[in-house]
Amino acid sequence: MAELALRELRKTYRSRGRPAVDAVRGIDLELRSGELLGLLGPSGCGKSTTLRMIAGLETVTGGDILVGGASVVGRPAQARNIGVAFENYALYPPLSVAENLAFGLKARRRGARGSRGEVARKVAEIAERVALTDLLQARPAGLSSGQKQRVALARALIREPDVLLLDEPLSHLDAAQRDTTRRELKRIQGDLGHTTILVTHDQEEALSLADRIAVMKDGVIQQLGTPYEIYDSPANVFVADFVGEPAINLLPGISTGDGHARLSRTVSFALPVKVAQDREIVIGIRPEDLELSGGDGVPARVSAHEPLLESGIATLALEGVVRPLVALTGPEVRLVRDERVRVGADPGLTHVFDAETGDSLR
Ligand SMILES: Nc1ncnc2c1ncn2[C@@H]1O[C@H](COP(=O)(O)OP(=O)(O)OP(=O)(O)O)[C@@H](O)[C@H]1O
């Protein structure tokens, strides 16, 4: 396995008669050998373009890509030793699973093809790893989405790549398959220790699989950190809003200068840091960090309560505040519409952002 580094990587798509699209605007990333990095962002943020440039399927407008310290930018895809498992599987329908896997091996070894025995041994070995042994003679059409996904993964792995690229590996799976395949993927990646980039728009996928996450928007990395760092200390409003389910409450307010944010004439929350008086800010409080208490706290009216099994979700109205507040409630809490409650938040868990730039002020 090798380290992977992206240096100031850029991509501008130019097509005649159309404005140029700056899809990737100077990305810097360093992956340790064996690390799994999640590249997370909304549709159109440049994730796939980044992956395709690393794989050699897309030209680079600027910057460099280094595998094990050596630039691969000038090399064609087949000479990069990078394994790619794409969203749409790209399996060959007339071939059996075993043949699809062997094909992956041969495609790279053109000229220096391994012996038949060696190919068969590698196919058997990788099939065992990803639990495909019983399906080696099946055709792709007869497989479930999760099984097809495992074949695509096995085909990328059989090349013993220096770097593994996974593009939305779980997006075609139903909820139950996604859970099991995600666990399998984590186990396999952990066992084999490939340096891996996983592209996804699904925060759960990124949070559960990745050692570190790079959150991307408009071709720029907004924040790079461990899942906990991203979740606990979002660098800006975009990251705070993109990561977390239900989404963080983001409420515009004015700093009072004495460690509070005023959200309306009667509603204010304590801030984790001192902010200059009259500065326009946005406070962020995660639904799970709000406490419904009988004692102190801000008066609120319940506008809806969804009691789920392990927890509930309360939607609350604060006096004079336009946006509703969403709070997670414990399994024992029963609320009715229009009930009056008090809601509070630990200032240590409250986030504060500049209203204009969106940057965190913590
Ligand atoms: N071949 C192309 N020609 C022109 N523009 C492109 C091309 N491919 C992608 N783009 C544009 O580049 C930007 C980034 O696209 P990209 O597919 O990398 O984003 P993404 O984050 O992977 O989104 P998705 O998850 O929807 O694939 C988008 O604005 C997209 O429209």
Describe the structure.
- This protein has 362 residues and is an alpha+beta fold.
- 23% of the residues lie in helices and 32% in strands.
- The chain contains eight helices and 20 strands.
- The chain has helices at 47-55, 97-108, 116-129, 145-157, 175-192, 203-209, 227-232, 237-242; strands spanning 4-13, 21-31, 36-40, 62-67, 70-71, 82-85, 163-167, 195-200, 212-217, 220-225, 249-255, 260-262, 268-270, 280-285, 290-293, 298-307, 312-318, 325-329, 340-345, 351-354.
- The strands form four sheets. It has a six-stranded mixed β-sheet, with helices on both faces.
- Strand 16 (298-307) and strand 17 form a beta hairpin.
- 37% of the residues are buried.
- The mean pLDDT is 92.
- Adenosine-5'-triphosphate is lined by residues 13, 21, 23, 41, 43-49, 201.
Give the helix proportion (percent range): 10-25%
Strand neighbour order, sheet with most strands: 6-7-8-3-9-10
Averaging pLDDT over every residue, what do you get? 92
As a whole number of angstroms, the C-alpha radius of gyration is 25 Å
Distance between the termini: 38 Å
- DSSP strand count: 20
Concise overview:
The chain has 362 residues and is α+β, with helices and mostly antiparallel strands.
Notable features of this structure?
362 residues, globular, binds adenosine-5'-triphosphate, transport, nucleotide-binding
SSE layout and pairing:
Elements: E1 4-13, E2 21-31, E3 36-40, H1 47-55, E4 62-67, E5 70-71, E6 82-85, H2 97-108, H3 116-129, H4 145-157, E7 163-167, H5 175-192, E8 195-200, H6 203-209, E9 212-217, E10 220-225, H7 227-232, H8 237-242, E11 249-255, E12 260-262, E13 268-270, E14 280-285, E15 290-293, E16 298-307, E17 312-318, E18 325-329, E19 340-345, E20 351-354
Parallel strand pairs: 3-8, 3-9, 6-7, 7-8
Antiparallel strand pairs: 1-2, 1-4, 4-5, 9-10, 11-12, 11-14, 12-13, 14-20, 15-19, 16-17, 16-19, 17-18
Adenosine-5'-triphosphate binds next to β2 and α1.
Keywords: ATP-binding, Nucleotide-binding, Transport
Organism: Streptomyces albiflavescens
InterPro entries: AAA+_ATPase, ABC_transporter-like_ATP-bd, ABC_transporter-like_CS, ABC_transpr_MalK/UgpC-like, Mo/tungstate-bd_C_term_dom, NA-bd_OB-fold, OB_MalK-like, P-loop_NTPase
